Fold histidine kinase.
Amino acid sequence: MKTRNYRIPIIYIVVGVLWITSSDYLLASLTSNFSPRVSNFTASLKGIVYIMATGFLLHYLIKKERVRIAEADKKRMAEIVDKMNNLIIMSDPSGNITWVNRAFVNITGYTMQEALGKTHADLLYGPKTDLEIVNKLTTALENKEFFSGQLINYAKGGKAYWSQFNISPMFNVEGGLEGFLSVENNIDDSKHREDLIVQQHRKLKAVSWFNSHEIRKPVASILALSELLMEEKNAMEQQELIKYLRQSAINLDLIIHQINEAAAVK
């Protein structure tokens, strides 16, 4: 059930009751030395003062309440973001880190204090970081544009890992740039699996190319021997050709078995 805040109406009511109960005595004391004509305006003056005072009071209370709600929402959002598995990095317009979540600390090894005031390049970039992607990212940030990409980042101990990131500019209500929000995923495992698949594909292509050449030898022999056998009339020559034909068939069968075993292993 949603909690309701009655603080502002309660303050307004209390101030109103106090004014009603004490205003007659207060105004009578202030106007006792004035002429009766001035005293006749006491009721009107009381209403005017009440409207002015309560108007300013309401403005102050509402403004203060809005600030309190905004701070509470900001705190709740920070608590939610801090529990996310994604790495969250907030930076100022100059790119200096102003906040990181718990996942960033766990994956990179850098504490909040170590990250504050640093840039992504200071903490995360290294020898294998793709400078072409970094340059595209820098251009997008200078133009206050969204950018998405993949980079090799480095944890505190120097361990490299793949990161898929989305970085967006943050604007205030006036449209001014407040900073940048980066949401990153550690895709190290999936990237390693992708590299393994590519390597396996290359090996399979090499095996396939080799086998396609190897298998042609016995097939060509079988075709040639078959042609000779069909033309040969001498029985002894036919027997000799059949012997060679059988050996070529055995060689073909052996190569097929080798291909099947190699494909199964790969």
Residues 94 and 192 are 34 Å apart (CA to CA). The beta strands are 87-91, 97-100, 147-154, 160-171, 177-186. The chain has three domains: 7-81, 85-186, 192-265.
